[in-house]
Amino acid sequence: MTQISNLTQSRSFSFALIALLAVVMALLPFFAPRAVVQDLFMILALTVLALNWNMLAGFAGLVSVGQQAFVGIGAYTAFAGVILYGLDPLTGVLIAGIVAMVLSIPVAFFTFRLNGAYFAIATWVVADILRLAFSQWKAVGGGTGTSLPKGTTKDMLGVQAIKDALDVSSAAAADTMLYWLVLALALVTLVASYMFLRSRMGLGLQAIRDNVNAARSVGVDPLRLKALVFLLTAFGTGICGALIFLQLGRITPNSAFAVTDWTAFVIFIVVIGGIGTLPGPIIGAVVFYILKRLLSDYGSVYLIVLGLIGIAIMLFARRGLWGMLKERTGFDLLPLSHRPPAAVQTTKEGALT
Amino acid sequence: MFTRRNFLQTSAAVAAVGLAAPALAQGTRVKLGYVSPQTGPLSAFSAADKFMVDKFLAAAPGLGLDVEVIVKDSQSNPNRAAEVAKELVSRDEVNLLLVASTPETTNPVCSVGEAEEIPVISTVAPWQPWFIGQQGNPQDPASWQGFDYAYHFFWGLEDAIAVFLGMWNSADTNKAVGALWPNDADGNAWASPVGMPPALAEAGFKLTDPGRYQNLTDDFSAQINAFKQSGADILVGIPIPPDFTTFWTQAKQQGLNPKIVTMAKALLFPESVQALGPLGHNLTSEVWWTPNHPFKSSLTGESSAQLAAGFEAAAKRQWTQPVGFVHAMFEVAADAIKRAEDPTDGDALAKAVAATKLDSIVGRIEFGRDNVPEFARANVSKTPLVGGQWRRKDDGNFDLVIVENAQAPEIPRGGDLELLG
Predict the structure, then answer these.
(1) A34 is in which domain, residue-wise?
(2) Would A349 be classed as within a structural domain?
(3) What percent of chain B has a predicted confidence (pLDDT) above 90?
(4) Cβ–Cβ of B111/A293 closer than 8 Å?
(5) CATH number, position A138
């Protein structure tokens, strides 16, 4: 019984903590300097990418190395919407998510025929095909890339209001707007992931990851569930990609479809934070960002150090930083475990009662 | 570069979060943020950075300037370039951004400067990929807009084309040209209707263009075959250095024997030519700056030769062309800060940069001159360009000899164009 009440307590504590954190972070632009807002933007964006990748690899067993495909598609959709069709960037962001999700259907159709390492390589191939295809799209600059037209972010919905309310430059107001959007996206992703994983479907998903045949034998349809997760994460990743590149203001095929920036670093984040847990990617994103800030001025040494840290954690803390913390303290945030079913009574003859 | 210092600054900034108070007044220190590719495939462009920053900081007090320079590495990555530029603006609160070396570095930084209303002085990228590459839709000239804060000095494709044609016309060839243009900012600009194809047609050259290829390709057989079939005597292109090494080695193996090979970007640095060994002899390239350029620094009064000698002594390596341009970038910065009403005010400083009229180590820098098309005139100042040929010496080192100077007769020629053996 104590375990059950522990779980319930831990759950309500988690929700209270997350709600408090969300409120504090939402209010941050009112008093914190702009540099902090920009830092948090990147941390939150990486968190969203990491949560999505964690859903794929940590829960659905889909180890994709091609998530940069959806970052790039999202970013290019938003840019094309703004540049070619004169849309408001915020409309562009929403369309970006939808286009990424629609595109993930044919991607899933082809790559789902493969498993494990073959699936990983196939997703990478898809991402590179897209990178090469977008290098040919001349209206958004081809291989040269393109910048957002002058003043686009200033005219974005809500930016003028923020500018007046906070009395800041329009560039800072645009930063704030994008920060709130990515904060909302991170919260929605986190809550949606939690609810999904706690649901029947989530349980089925984790069953598939652990043993496909066993899951099928109890009536779980692996293909349907995996495809659903793939589509939903493509949606989130696409929106996140659009936000990141609206913040950067400039796009090239090589930067939008960069396997290091949008997949390798994200895998690093999930691995050091703790794969297959929800707080893991969040902690990983914070740790990664701090490392990046401290080390990136040292040139290539920085990447070597990241690699060494990754290897060390894989060898000595297999469940990541969060897993280690949980083991040491027994404390858990957003626990995903279910109450075990009541013990089954058996008679002496071994028959079920 | 300055890593320890940056580290300390970062830590201090993290510690002092919330205490930042932008007290801007005349006579305060002016902060400059410099972004360049110090690591990664473009790092050869940044060899002179540390030397030039030190030189600028040493010269500044004598000119009555109180300046600080914060150097950031783009890691040859456009995402990273935009990110560090944003950091320089919001965290370090710089008053002026400086950026050099290839559109992949200059364009993201200029976009940030323009959005943040912080002036940018940019160089070392032909002006077309710089100006047109930053437009939302590069295909629609009617939509192109000038910049209020970004200013650029370098040469343009029209200058490079004139130099190349000058070199090619001085020799006896079949006037068939093969082009090696990648699908990146530079390659697309060269291959576009504002680039080389119309100019070649007009000058009576026949062009074979096998299409844009991706950077870091490892097989150039398709291109080599196309050039063989068209019997091209002349090859032109703007590959990145590792690609040219691959291409040229394969071309020789497959029996392609052109008379002239003129490559932009790939043949700028002695290291890249030395890597080719005997295959590097008599390759030609555009030349933006040499120790023989008859110009003087407005910061230190040194001649080109003295500046190059100083760099060679300090860095213990051969001079490179960016040496002059990185120095000139600091010349423009110092001059604009001196003239600005309030150098800590973005608009006032941008106004001062726009009004630059300076005789620098790379020639005259002045915006709004009529040698640039009207749409880009306010933001672009052109510097002189000549053509050079790499000559291999007996010890395996290479000398860059100027063989074509019709565009800039004030820069002396060192010899005549020699054909490949």
Answers:
(1) 8-258
(2) no
(3) 73
(4) no
(5) 1.10.3470
ipTM of the assembly? 0.75
- B115 and A249: CB-CB below 8 Å? yes
CA pair distance A313, A80, nearest whole angstrom: 41
**A152-166, B9-23, B30-44: which is most confident:** B30-44
Closest Cα of chain A to B386: distance in Å?
A: 26
Q: Which domain holds residue B253?
A: 158-287+386-404
Q: What residue of B is the nearest CA neighbor of A245?
A: B79
Inside any domain, residue A253: yes
For chain A, say whether B137 makes contact (Cβ under 8 Å): yes
Contact between chains at B143 and A248 (C-beta distance less than 8 A): no
Please state the domain count of chain B: 2
Q: Is B17 touching A (CB cutoff 8 A)?
A: yes
Count structural domains, chain A.
Answer: 1
Mutate one of B79, B111, B188, B240 to test the A interface: name it (highest A CB count within 10 A): B79
pLDDT digits (tens, 9 = 90+) for B285-337: 999 999 999 999 999 999 999 999 999 999 898 899 999 999 999 999 999 99
Kindly state whether residues B148 and B208 are assigned to the same domain.
no
Q: What is the pTM of this model?
A: 0.83
How do beta strands B96-100 and B30-36 pair? parallel
